[in-house]
Amino acid sequence: MTDIKARIEAANAKALDIIRTGTPSLIDVGPAIDIVPGMAKNMIMHSGPAIAWRDMCGPHRNGVIGAALFEGLAGSADEAQAMLDRGEIVVSPCHDHLSVGAGAGIISASTPMLVVENTTFGNRAYSCISEGGGLRLLKWGAYDDTVLKNLAWQAKTFGPVLKAALQKSGPIDIKAIISRAVEMGDECHNRSIAATSLFLREIYPHIMTLDLPRDDIRASVKFLVDSEHFLLHAIMASAKAVLVPAEGIPYCTVVTAMARNGVDFGIKVSALGDNWFTAPANPVKGLYFRAEWDDSCAAPDLGDSAITETVGLGGFIQPAAPTVTQYVHGNLASAIANTHQMQQICVGTNPDIRIPAMDFTPGPIAIDVRKVVHTGITPLLDTAITHKEGGLIGAGEVHAPMGCFADALRAFAQHVESQSA
Amino acid sequence: MTDIKARIEAANAKALDIIRTGTPSLIDVGPAIDIVPGMAKNMIMHSGPAIAWRDMCGPHRNGVIGAALFEGLAGSADEAQAMLDRGEIVVSPCHDHLSVGAGAGIISASTPMLVVENTTFGNRAYSCISEGGGLRLLKWGAYDDTVLKNLAWQAKTFGPVLKAALQKSGPIDIKAIISRAVEMGDECHNRSIAATSLFLREIYPHIMTLDLPRDDIRASVKFLVDSEHFLLHAIMASAKAVLVPAEGIPYCTVVTAMARNGVDFGIKVSALGDNWFTAPANPVKGLYFRAEWDDSCAAPDLGDSAITETVGLGGFIQPAAPTVTQYVHGNLASAIANTHQMQQICVGTNPDIRIPAMDFTPGPIAIDVRKVVHTGITPLLDTAITHKEGGLIGAGEVHAPMGCFADALRAFAQHVESQSA
Predict the structure, then answer these.
(1) Do B356 and A358 touch (CB under 8 A)?
(2) Are strands A99-100 and A24-31 parallel, antiparallel or unpaired?
């Protein structure tokens, strides 16, 4: 038993080292069909663990239908649903394709994808591009002419402009931007305005030099300037790129993915490979943006953005972003208490993420399934609140459900037994 | 006596209201000779209270000589000194011209000046443009070919580009940028990276649309991107624009300017008009950027940037920028203690400046000379450290000397007596 415990500790230390030494850089942009492993013309990717089309919640259903219309796979919502029912259009989780999507996480063949390379280990991960601000976006399970027109513009114009700018700039070091943004009031999940601004400072001089139509460049710059959360998607792809090399380590109990599909919350654990362990997603506690909305309107917690907490950002470092705690009527003391809780379920700390309001204490990182189960503390996520019929309606925080961690730990015990047998 | 106390309280409440309701916007850029009241071709402005050329410290002397060479007033440093000795070149404090300059605050006829309008009261104030990063700049009392070449480029190219961009953008609301930057880790004196980034987000789309040579636009964008403290100068001009309408209020004991010339620290007090009250400037306590530098190299506290503390930024809200406290080995608790001290010497608080790490407590604003003298607490300034022979060598904090406040209060008492007599 001591031997097994030592093996686990060694495996977890290795995972911690891998996660801490990852160096994600944004290197390219291109259509999902050209870039994302396993992507197909009739495939629509979604956030969270795998889920059948028929079991999806409102935002995911709407997002998938919207994407089918955007791609011209179907001419109407009814036709799209029939094709999905017949399996002529297929759905697949982003995480199965080294990808992550915010909100409903809807990604189709034409979606321009950010390509992030973890230069330490040479692996890549992907995320769609932010659709900009606003409450009605495909990622919030909304589709209408404005949404579809914006998606078409992103695919035709903005994606190529950003790709060309990245070719001029060379890799943009997202790790360095995150470190600095955390000093500037971002926890890099519900708030990424500083990260976005720092990114813009790096990319602008290169956008200026592009030999592309000036109207396209101007429209792209306006879009970037208006998108306060633009860099969140690159941060998410960076988190995924950092976590992939920590997958599949024997005896390792570190969580390598957390994601929600609006029905279930799922986690992956290093030693247990590609298996999702799931439990029903919790309701989000937070602030609704309009008086007309309340808990009865809200879909459960959803999106792949929990990948940020999986690398110790977002809810794990709330005191870095006191503005975010205001959504839940919190204060700095409660935010610090939350970080102290997250310290109890993590393997270690991240010297590159230092929390100013805690005298630059390094943030907790690398969730240990054992510690979650033993302490009874589940990961705390900052997150948006989505209307159950689609649309962004608020923001707040939510705890992961315990069930998936308990199941994973049981599976881990069986796995260890089978290895020892 | 009660009557006088009530008059003072009413006058101070009026000053507080004027300062809090000021709305500074950046509206224009142009050469000092065209814009600054009282500017002359043979005049060189400097930071701090008035000081004779022969009494200036190293950084100010070097800065003045550098400006004389930049303007072509003299062909050599020796000639410049002789002309200054003979009064053919004159020196004058920035504050006498509704202007503020960081460091030595050197401004000459060709210097491109930021024009800030306080739209609430319709008055304007001015500051030179940041020379960018680096340790050797005219404002740090350094002049060489690189420095002079950069000044010439700013006057010929960058100033006109920024002017044209501001014509496109319309007024840029600096008050709103400051409010937001304070949520993003800036105290807006020693740290203004967030404010600068927020400004760049606003100005970039307009720079893109300029019908000016592309090389000039590219060079200007590169300069802006590389200048982490760019917006400090606009913040300083904004602070001055906000304070001017609070000058000259009978019975008002609010400080309307603080500035240092490297020899003396000077203050102005509302009821006492244009008089400077001065005391020897204190040495700055802080971090030197290289091991070769220590206290023996440093000039005393200097620059007009203390105008930021005069409107409750910088050292008054240190907990908003924990990074800055690191220069003096401080921690969040010491920063909060410093803000609590500043609360004791201020008339009120500023609802537009809220400190995240103090649960969004509004920052203290409007220094009351009476409270300074009665508590024995002088204003705390964040500031740079300048080499006594010129050049930036560190950053830290410094307390204003008590002498100038004590003198001002005595003068105020005499003033009140003379009014009552």
Answers:
(1) no
(2) unpaired
* In the predicted structure, residue A374 carries a pLDDT above the cut 90: yes
Containing A128, the helix (H) or strand (E) segment is strand A123-128
Task: Name the pTM for this structure.
Answer: 0.95
Q: What is the pLDDT of residue A328?
A: 87
Q: Which two tokens stand for residue A66?
A: 């919207």
Identify the CA nearest to B335 among candidates B312, B318, B349, B355.
Answer: B318
Q: Do B183 and A183 touch (CB under 8 A)?
A: no
Searching chain B, which residue's CA lies closest to the CA of residue A358?
B332
Confidence of residue A40 (pLDDT cuts 50, 70, 90): very high
pLDDT of residue A120 exceeding 60:
yes
Tell me how far CA of residue B71 lies from CA of A120, B98, B258, in angstroms.
52, 21, 28
Residue A313: which pLDDT band, with cuts at 50, 70 and 90? Answer: very high
Assigned architecture for domain A248-420: Alpha-Beta Complex (3.90)
* Chain B CB contacts of A198 below 8 Å: 197
Nearest CA-CA distance, residue B335 and chain A, Å: 11
CATH homologous superfamily for B247-420? v583 domain like (3.90.1700.10)
Nearest 5 degrees, angle CA B34-CA B38-CA B44? 85
Name beta bridge partners: A91. Answer: A44
How is domain B23-237 classified at the CATH fold level? Enterococcus faecalis V583 fold (3.90.1710)
**Residues A355, A380: contact at Cβ < 8 Å?**
no
Q: Which residue has the tokens 């000194």?
A: B81
Query: What is the rounded average pLDDT of the residues A132-148?
Result: 93
C-alpha triplet B135, B102, B187: angle, nearest 5°: 90
**Rounded Cα gap, residues A383 and A103, in angstroms:** 9
pLDDT in tens, A198-243: 999 999 999 988 999 999 999 999 999 999 999 999 999 999 999 9
| Res A421: pLDDT | 64
| Strand A90-93, strand A43-46: pairing | parallel
HEC per residue, B273-315: CCCCEEEECCCCEEEECCCCCCHHHECCCEEHHHHHHHCCCHH
Q: How many CB pairs lie under 8 A apart between chains A and B?
A: 86
pLDDT, residue B1, reads: 55
Q: What pLDDT is attached to residue A302?
A: 95
Looking at residue B140, the DSSP 8-state letter turns out to be: G
Partner-chain contact B332 A218, CB within 8 Å:
no
Average pLDDT score over residue span B259-281:
97
Are A208 and B209 a contacting pair at CB < 8 A?
no
Q: pLDDT-derived band of residue B276, with 50, 70 and 90 as boundaries? A: very high
Domains of chain A, by residue range, sit at 23-237, 248-420
Which residue bears the tokens 């009874």? A376
Among the partner-chain residues B194, B208, B221, the one whose CB lies closest to the CB of A184 is: B194
Contact flag A200-B197 (C-beta cutoff 8 Å) = yes
On whether the CB atoms of residues A275 and A268 are closer than 8 A, the answer is yes
pLDDT in the model for residue A2: 67
What's the mean pLDDT when you consider all of chain B?
Answer: 96
- Rounded Cα–Cα distance for residues A219 and A354 (Å): 36
- Spatial separation of the C-alpha atoms in residues B38 and B83, rounded to whole Å: 20
Amino acid (one-letter) located at B64: V
To the nearest whole Å, the CA of A178 is away from the closest chain B CA by: 13
Measured between beta carbons, the chain B residues lying within 8 angstroms of A330 are: none
- CA-based end-to-end distance of chain B: 13
